[in-house]
Specification:
The chain has helices at residues 14-26, 41-49, 68-77, 88-97, 109-124, 135-143, 160-168, 171-175, 196-210, 222-233, 249-255, 270-277, 288-293, 312-320, 322-339, 342-358, and strands spanning 2-8, 32-38, 55-56, 82-86, 102-106, 128-132, 151-153, 182-185, 213-216, 240-241, 258-261, 281-285, 301-303. The protein is α/β, with parallel strands linked by helices. α9 (196-210) packs parallel to α10 and α11 packs parallel to α12.
């Protein structure tokens, strides 16, 4: 029996929650025993809302290493063989508390650039492997001096049954958006650098001109509050749909018509995987991470985002091309079955755990289904 402990930190969002739930639910129980720890109350609450309990061993004074004494006892009592850290701070806590192998799962490309030195340091003190959902993260880690044979790409897993349940359910009705209207989803976390303000304003203008367009931004943040206040002051029709934490981002993506990504930096690609599987058209700024998954007018619509230029015209053009949107929806949905299967995602993690524990190459038997040879 292999005993694994999942550790989350303050960076944990909907992507980590969904991935942990998938592994807790689908990893083989006859050979793998799983435990879950949160080093931040928000991470624990996110898991608890969706039915995944976690022990709370908080970091202190914002320092992950100060969670080590209690975490060490937790890991020892459960005879944990491998630690799966969902974030760099979680990896710091894990490495400080234990000399067991650590797998760090990174979603955000910005984290690769920001945390590469810290990850290199952690790797020097013991066995540490990074798994990521997009190749740009692997590339940036290697460029930053992290060992190439300690990084592996595992694309997101998507639960098609859940998507069908969301689409048949009442999520969209609960939002007050008619089936004939266009619902545009901006995925969390909403930040200034993510282009959410300009994207939501673009949808507001389109709604004012042609009508029947709505924008929904899951989660809570200062940026969402700023957008809400700004839209409330506009002499336009209401466009922003407010949601609470009970509706997950994956559910909102599934019932939306368009996933809009307007970030000037690279973004995590889990939302794209869920959108493709949901027949939700992807309209995005052409960053490196996005173009790993999306080809313009093939399985999504891309636009350039020159510095200092408004993207209103680009977004309006994409949202107005209904023929192209329908075409890319169908093409993306067909590809999603091949690339983002949940069974493959779980099996790749099983292989990864086995590789790490047996000192085999971490990518042995793991093939990136999105890689074009």
């Amino acid at each position: 029996m292999t005993r694994i402990c999942h550790i989350t930190d303050a960076s944990a969002g909907w992507e980590q929650r969904v991935a942990i739930e998938q592994l807790l639910d689908r990893l083989p129980r006859d050979s793998i025993e799983q435990h879950t720890v949160a080093t931040h109350r928000d991470a624990r609450a996110a898991l608890a809302r969706m039915g995944s309990g976690a022990a709370l061993i908080p970091s202190r004074l914002g320092l992950a290493m100060l969670a080590a004494p209690r975490l060490r006892g937790f890991l020892s009592r459960r005879s944990v063989d491998l630690i799966h850290a969902w974030g760099t701070s979680a990896a710091v806590a894990a490495r400080t508390a234990s000399d067991k192998p650590v797998v760090v799962e990174l979603f955000d490309p910005a984290a690769a650039r920001r945390d590469v030195k810290l990850l290199r340091t952690l790797a020097l003190s013991g066995r540490l492997t990074v798994v990521t959902s997009c190749a740009i993260v692997r590339r940036r880690l290697i460029e930053g001096g992290f060992e190439a044979d300690r990084v592996v790409v595992i694309r997101p897993g998507v639960d098609f049954a859940r998507i069908n349940a969301y689409r048949r359910g009442t999520v969209r009705d609960d939002l007050g958006v008619a089936r004939s209207d266009t619902l545009v989803c901006l995925v969390p976390p909403a930040t200034r650098r993510g282009g959410y303000f300009e994207a939501s304003y673009a949808v507001s203008v389109i709604n004012h001109v042609v009508g029947a367009h709505w924008v929904v931004i899951p989660g809570r943040s200062h940026e969402i509050g700023r957008i809400a206040r700004f839209q409330g002051a506009l002499p336009m029709k209401r466009t922003l749909v407010r949601v609470d934490d009970r509706i997950g981002a994956e559910a909102l993506i599934a019932v939306s018509d368009v996933l809009l990504i307007a970030a000037r930096d690279d973004v995590s690609t889990t939302s794209i995987a869920w959108a493709m599987a949901s027949r939700t058209a992807v309209v995005a700024a052409a960053g490196y991470a996005v173009t790993e998954m999306v080809a313009h007018k093939v399985n999504g619509l891309l636009f350039k985002q020159p510095p200092g230029r408004s993207m209103l015209a680009s977004i309006a053009h994409c949202l107005g091309d209904r023929v192209a949107l329908e075409k890319v929806r169908e093409a993306a949905h067909g590809q999603a079955y091949e690339i983002f299967g949940l069974r493959r995602y779980v099996e790749d993690h099983v292989r990864l755990y086995e590789n790490v524990l047996s000192d085999r190459p971490v990518d042995s038997g793991i093939v990136d289904p999105a890689r074009v040879e």
